[in-house]
Amino acid sequence: MKKAKSLGKIVISFGNIWLDKSRSRQIRLTLLFLILQLLIIIFFFSKLPPQVPLFFSRPWGELQLTSPFYLLVLPLFSFIVLLINLLLSSFLLEDNEFLTNLFIFGSLTFSFFALIALLKSIQLAL
Protein backbone atom coordinates (compact mmCIF):
# COMPACT_ATOMS: atom_id res chain seq x y z
CA MET A 1 0.00 0.00 0.00
CA LYS A 2 1.37 3.41 -0.96
CA LYS A 3 1.85 6.08 1.64
CA ALA A 4 0.20 9.46 1.20
CA LYS A 5 2.50 12.13 -0.15
CA SER A 6 3.75 14.66 2.33
CA LEU A 7 3.18 18.36 1.78
CA GLY A 8 6.86 18.85 0.96
CA LYS A 9 6.73 16.28 -1.85
CA ILE A 10 3.60 17.91 -3.27
CA VAL A 11 5.32 21.32 -3.30
CA ILE A 12 8.37 19.82 -5.00
CA SER A 13 6.12 18.11 -7.57
CA PHE A 14 4.37 21.41 -8.17
CA GLY A 15 7.75 23.02 -8.83
CA ASN A 16 8.67 20.19 -11.21
CA ILE A 17 5.51 20.87 -13.20
CA TRP A 18 6.77 24.41 -13.86
CA LEU A 19 10.22 23.14 -14.89
CA ASP A 20 8.86 21.37 -17.95
CA LYS A 21 8.77 23.91 -20.80
CA SER A 22 5.60 22.70 -22.53
CA ARG A 23 3.67 22.47 -19.25
CA SER A 24 4.80 25.90 -18.07
CA ARG A 25 3.82 27.40 -21.45
CA GLN A 26 0.35 25.88 -21.14
CA ILE A 27 -0.03 27.17 -17.58
CA ARG A 28 1.10 30.65 -18.63
CA LEU A 29 -1.32 30.62 -21.55
CA THR A 30 -4.11 29.54 -19.21
CA LEU A 31 -3.26 32.45 -16.89
CA LEU A 32 -3.19 34.79 -19.90
CA PHE A 33 -6.70 33.68 -20.90
CA LEU A 34 -7.83 34.19 -17.32
CA ILE A 35 -6.37 37.71 -17.18
CA LEU A 36 -7.89 38.51 -20.59
CA GLN A 37 -11.30 37.47 -19.27
CA LEU A 38 -10.95 39.80 -16.30
CA LEU A 39 -9.73 42.70 -18.46
CA ILE A 40 -12.58 42.26 -20.93
CA ILE A 41 -15.12 42.26 -18.11
CA ILE A 42 -13.57 45.39 -16.58
CA PHE A 43 -13.43 47.17 -19.94
CA PHE A 44 -16.99 46.40 -21.05
CA PHE A 45 -18.76 46.34 -17.68
CA SER A 46 -19.97 49.94 -17.78
CA LYS A 47 -21.21 49.52 -21.37
CA LEU A 48 -23.26 46.38 -20.69
CA PRO A 49 -27.04 46.47 -20.38
CA PRO A 50 -28.74 45.39 -17.12
CA GLN A 51 -29.23 41.87 -18.50
CA VAL A 52 -26.70 39.87 -20.53
CA PRO A 53 -26.98 36.42 -22.11
CA LEU A 54 -24.91 33.80 -20.34
CA PHE A 55 -26.87 30.56 -20.06
CA PHE A 56 -26.64 29.38 -23.66
CA SER A 57 -27.99 25.92 -22.87
CA ARG A 58 -31.39 27.39 -22.00
CA PRO A 59 -34.02 28.22 -24.64
CA TRP A 60 -33.55 31.48 -26.52
CA GLY A 61 -34.93 34.53 -24.79
CA GLU A 62 -35.31 35.74 -21.26
CA LEU A 63 -34.18 32.44 -19.71
CA GLN A 64 -30.64 33.04 -20.99
CA LEU A 65 -30.32 36.46 -19.38
CA THR A 66 -28.63 37.32 -16.12
CA SER A 67 -26.96 40.24 -14.36
CA PRO A 68 -23.56 41.33 -15.76
CA PHE A 69 -22.00 40.44 -12.38
CA TYR A 70 -22.46 36.77 -13.27
CA LEU A 71 -19.90 37.16 -16.05
CA LEU A 72 -17.31 36.97 -13.27
CA VAL A 73 -18.25 33.32 -12.86
CA LEU A 74 -16.33 32.45 -16.03
CA PRO A 75 -12.87 33.60 -14.86
CA LEU A 76 -13.61 32.33 -11.36
CA PHE A 77 -14.37 28.83 -12.63
CA SER A 78 -11.32 28.98 -14.90
CA PHE A 79 -9.14 29.77 -11.91
CA ILE A 80 -10.72 27.01 -9.78
CA VAL A 81 -10.26 24.45 -12.56
CA LEU A 82 -6.62 25.51 -12.93
CA LEU A 83 -5.97 25.15 -9.19
CA ILE A 84 -7.65 21.76 -8.92
CA ASN A 85 -5.87 20.44 -12.01
CA LEU A 86 -2.50 21.69 -10.79
CA LEU A 87 -3.10 20.01 -7.44
CA LEU A 88 -4.09 16.75 -9.13
CA SER A 89 -1.09 17.05 -11.45
CA SER A 90 1.28 17.46 -8.52
CA PHE A 91 -0.08 14.23 -7.01
CA LEU A 92 0.25 12.31 -10.27
CA LEU A 93 3.52 13.69 -11.67
CA GLU A 94 5.74 10.81 -10.56
CA ASP A 95 3.21 8.07 -11.30
CA ASN A 96 1.56 9.16 -14.53
CA GLU A 97 3.03 11.91 -16.64
CA PHE A 98 0.34 11.52 -19.31
CA LEU A 99 -2.45 12.38 -16.85
CA THR A 100 -0.42 15.32 -15.58
CA ASN A 101 -0.19 16.70 -19.11
CA LEU A 102 -3.87 15.95 -19.69
CA PHE A 103 -4.96 17.89 -16.58
CA ILE A 104 -2.86 20.90 -17.54
CA PHE A 105 -4.14 20.84 -21.11
CA GLY A 106 -7.68 20.50 -19.73
CA SER A 107 -7.19 23.71 -17.75
CA LEU A 108 -6.01 25.48 -20.88
CA THR A 109 -8.98 24.21 -22.88
CA PHE A 110 -11.49 25.18 -20.18
CA SER A 111 -10.03 28.67 -19.89
CA PHE A 112 -10.06 29.12 -23.68
CA PHE A 113 -13.71 28.13 -23.99
CA ALA A 114 -14.64 30.35 -21.03
CA LEU A 115 -12.99 33.24 -22.89
CA ILE A 116 -15.00 32.42 -26.02
CA ALA A 117 -18.24 32.24 -23.98
CA LEU A 118 -17.45 35.59 -22.41
CA LEU A 119 -16.77 37.21 -25.78
CA LYS A 120 -20.00 35.76 -27.20
CA SER A 121 -22.00 36.99 -24.21
CA ILE A 122 -20.63 40.50 -24.55
CA GLN A 123 -21.10 40.47 -28.33
CA LEU A 124 -24.77 39.49 -27.96
CA ALA A 125 -25.32 42.02 -25.18
CA LEU A 126 -23.96 45.00 -27.09
Strand order of the largest sheet: 1-2
Cα-based radius of gyration, to the nearest Å: 18 Å
Q: What amount of the residues lies in strands?
A: under 5%
The biggest beta sheet is recorded as: 2 strands, antiparallel
What structural category characterises the helix and strand content? mainly alpha
Element order: H for helix, E for strand: HHEEHH
Molecular shape:
elongated
Distance between the termini: 58 Å
Total DSSP helices: 4
Mean pLDDT, rounded to whole units?
85
Indicate the low-confidence ranges by residue numbers: none
Percent helix? 55-70%
Number of separate domains = 1
User: How many beta-strand elements?
Assistant: 2
Oligomer: single chain
